[in-house]
Amino acid sequence: MKTTIITACFGLFIGFACVEGQAKELTVDEIVRKANHMALYQGADGKGKVTMVIKDKQGRIRKREFNMLRKNDDNKDRDQKYYAFFQAPADVRKMVFMVHKHGALEKDDDRWLYMPSLDMVKRIAAGDKRTSFVGSDFLYEDISGRSPAEDKHELIKTTDRYYVLKNIPRKPDNVEFEYYLAHIDKKTFLPMKMEFFKKDDRLYRVIESIKVEEIQAEENGKKVAYPTVTVSLAKDMDNGSSTEMTFSNARYNIGLSSKIFTERYLRRPPRKAMR
Amino acid sequence: MRKTTNTYELLVLILFLVLMFLKPHVHAAEGNENFFPDQFAPVEIHGFLEMRAGCRTQKDSNERGRSVMEGRLQAEFFTYTDWAEFKYKGDVWGDGVTERGEYDTREAWVFSRPTESLDIKVGRQVLTWGTGDLVFLNDMFPKDWQSYFIGRDKEYLKAPSDAAKISFFTKPANIDVVYTPKFDPDRYITGEYISYWNGTQKSIAGQDKRVHSKKPDSWFQDDEVAMRVYRNINNYELALYGYRGFWKRPGGQTPSGIAIFPGLNVYGASARGQVGPGIGNIELAYYQSADDESGSDPLINNSEMRYLAGYTQDLAKDFNVSLQYYVEQLLDYSDYKASLTGGPARDRGRHVITLQLTKLLMNQNLELSLSSYYSPSDRDAYLRPNIRYKYNDKIVLEGGANIFLGEESHTFFGQFENNTNIYAAVRYSF
Fold it and tell me: Which of B244, B249, B233 is nearest to B186 (CA)?
């Protein structure tokens, strides 16, 4: 009798646990969608200062500094506009790099570069997104995001903190990796670690989120906090270099006009980008 | 010291002072007594020190062996207030070719964005527009090919203008109007640094036989107006251009052989945007030689049509290729030929193919590039290989060459054959 009750209670308990577990059970696509949103699309717009410290194999250090403005074009986590105003090093100071990012896979991003000493607006061929961004260990795609549609996703593990996703490129010829693992924080859905593998499961590249801060902002008149990666580290095991990227003065929902992302502001940056 | 810019600098100073006196009243009226210290953002000071040396790789009886030899300091100062931005950028250098101390203000301007739809920039400024990659059709702002040919940094290809640029931003289109109150010619080849084909003398000439020119230089009479109307449609950049002024380098001569800058009007259009995996551009311009519209005056350039089509694409990782086809077509060619008094005739069309290759290596710290211009009609070419290494964030090392090839000594690039040079530079930025 006793055992029956105990069994029943146990069963009930497990049952509850299962119900609760199911309520939280997300599909792989939902995890991917949320992670993509958290990494790139929080708020309607945002700005911040990016500092990159690049350390090569010999320990030599180079720095990059730019102010970044970002605006979402829609609520679908697809099209976006980026504006980067460089402050360091000297040879790129006051250059502006602008991107109109297109979520659709078949449409290349539009990119412009403004060179102030020549007053020249250059249109840049979209090119290979998996090339280094300003000589750092971050690639273009790490900055403006790799579209979830580029990969097949598989949930391979759930730990107490992370969903671990395996991402396999749909077009392997376009990328240098075989697959990558993404550790997605279960609470915030921020990608906390990405490990890129080449053939034979050889790990050659890692991006880690070192520090996450809650950035206070307003959304439709309400106070909200956006968890934001403020320090991240990219390591390239193949060439022995690493880059620490710091995102400071982060702000969201500052009311950026889409006019900022045009030739007018390429040639003379808005105050929001200069300060 | 040369290239005095007194009148102009005085104007900027006056404008600066006027604006300063105007604005504080606004703030004083707001009860902000202590306006001054807060008003300007801290002045940003940057610049570089550079040593650059180069020599001809063959003897040129008209020029020195050294093609470039200079120690240069560039300094820039920038600040802003709530209502305007201010910039000064100037170079001083000891020039081993002219054997003088030289000075040049590259920028000295005030910029303001008074309304949602208006930008104003007044003062000495570098201006560029158009779609060409180191080929300029509708960009009638002054160039400095001399600096380019002796191997100075690419930034010096553009010479500054003393002008006011007013930009209107409206829904159907944006409009730029640039008014230059006194004609700013190109810094063209005069024989000072680079030897050239002297059409009067019918031979190559250099330092001993400099170009003597008479430049239109009356304020507000010999002025230039350039205009651009542009619009983006789905990120295809479309533009119309207009210019009223003068040929930017001598476009004629007096009967006594003094080079002159006849009147010129230019009308053109361009389009640029994504085509396939790269960026395509087309541009055309009609150069209306205002002082010789019929083409019958042998001493003044005929009108021309100029056409450009280009394409640029990343062919591999950090490897960009840009290819352009450029044509200058002489109009009223039969009149030109009939009135030619001697010397070799120009072809009706000058065709130029340009190819630029850029490859980045070593975490993008090493840049190998080649700019090349080849003219099948003139049978001449210009090659500009360059290697740049960023030793660290402050020091850049650079080496390169300017190679001129040609079968005849009167063609555009062929005339410079004896100026083929190599150069090296080190720059420290602060």
Answer: B249
